[in-house]
Amino acid sequence: MARPIVIAHRGASGYLPEHTLEAKALAYAMGADFLEQDCVLTADDVPIVLHDIFLDTVTNVAAMFADRKREDGRYYAIDFTLDEIKLLHVTERIDHETGEVVFPGRFPAGKSRFEVPTLTEEIELVQGLNRSTGKSVGIYPEIKQPAFHREQGKDISRKVLEVLTQYGFRSREDACFVQCFDAAETRRLRQDLDCQLRLVQLIYETEWAETPSEFNAARTGEAMRKIAEYADGLGPLLTLVVSGLDSNGQPVRTPLVEAAHQQGLVVHPWTFRADGMPEWCDDFDALLRMFYVDAEVDGLFSDFPDRAARVRDCLG
Q1: Which of 205, 207, 293, 306 is the most exposed place for a label (fewest CB within 10 A)?
Q2: Residue pLDDT, tens place only, 138-176
Q3: Does pLDDT of 273 surpass 90?
Q4: What is the set of domains in the chain, with CATH numbers?
Q5: Per residue in 198-226, pLDDT tens?
């Protein structure tokens, strides 16, 4: 098997506020093979890099634009122009309901100065660093909530593909994966929008299993055959790949990776966090080794790309 890739989840988000250019530059320097970009649209149709369709969990939008929230109390990126969003300060992720920092051991909330980048700015950063360093680090954009964007009269997939095409990302040979949770939209990217980039179907829960430990191999295989009709890879929640440990402390693998590989799909599970471990494991390096060696994944998403790369490289 080819060496697994390390995908920097929202950049080096274990060390700097997620999806900032600073977090991406650090992840690049730490040896990530790909940098992730979650994409949503502004009011003026600019793809920006933001994990949520909301601004209030990672910016000071409530302080800057108190009167711009919707009836549900949330501040939606799609209601703001790019110029307005560029006025905001990005901070560590805050729980919207409690107001508490989600990962209290990370970069101090509210400190320093960070902003929301555009997809164009991120690509130019990566391509610029590739030129100046001689490396070939790729990008890994996600189409976020396409159905929501359609309800607002916007086609996020078209807008993201326009930017990718402008910067030379057009074929499977290019250093780019495009991912999406919406299976209909992932299929649309391939069949209707003629996207020839490598497509990855994200999955959180599965219709072929009641729980991660109850995979039915036959039904899993059928699901992988359907995904392989339009996609090149699978991005599952990590516990859909390894559901826990057996009585001897060995990882319990589901049939997912084997079934995906049988259909020619790569598997890139998420999210590996040293400060957000599954309840059945308390050793981050050991968790990474389980997936690299025992589960035989083709890559993984981590908030700590330096550690993910170090463990991977030590395996030879």
Answers
A1: 207
A2: 999 999 999 999 999 999 999 999 999 999 999 999 999
A3: yes
A4: 5-53+116-314 (3.20.20.190)
A5: 999 999 875 555 455 555 666 788 899 99
**Can you say whether the dihedral through the CA atoms of 46, 49, 54, 60 is positive or negative?**
negative
Q: By CB neighbour count within 10 A (0-12 exposed, 13-18 middle, 19+ buried), where does 207 fall?
A: exposed
Cβ-contact 178, 158 below 8 angstroms: no
Task: Please provide residue 207's backbone torsions phi and psi, each rounded to the nearest 5 degrees.
Answer: -80, -10
Tokens of 181: 């949770």
Closest CA to 57 of 13, 102, 14, 87: 102
| Tokens describing residue 124 | 């130019």
- DSSP for 94-124 reads B-TTT--BSSTTSSPTT-S---PPBHHHHHH
Backbone CA torsion sign across 116, 155, 120, 182: positive
Beta strands 242-245 and 251-253 are: antiparallel
Strand 138-143 and strand 34-41: the pairing is parallel
pTM of the model: 0.96
Q: How far apart are CA 189 and CA 181, in angstroms?
A: 12
Name the residues annotated as catalytic.
Answer: 9, 51
Which of these, 16, 17, 11, 2, lies nearest to 34 by C-alpha position?
11
Per DSSP, the three-state class of 23 is: helix
Any idea which residue has 């730490």 for tokens?
A: 30
Q: How many CA atoms lie within 13 A of 24 on its CB side?
A: 32
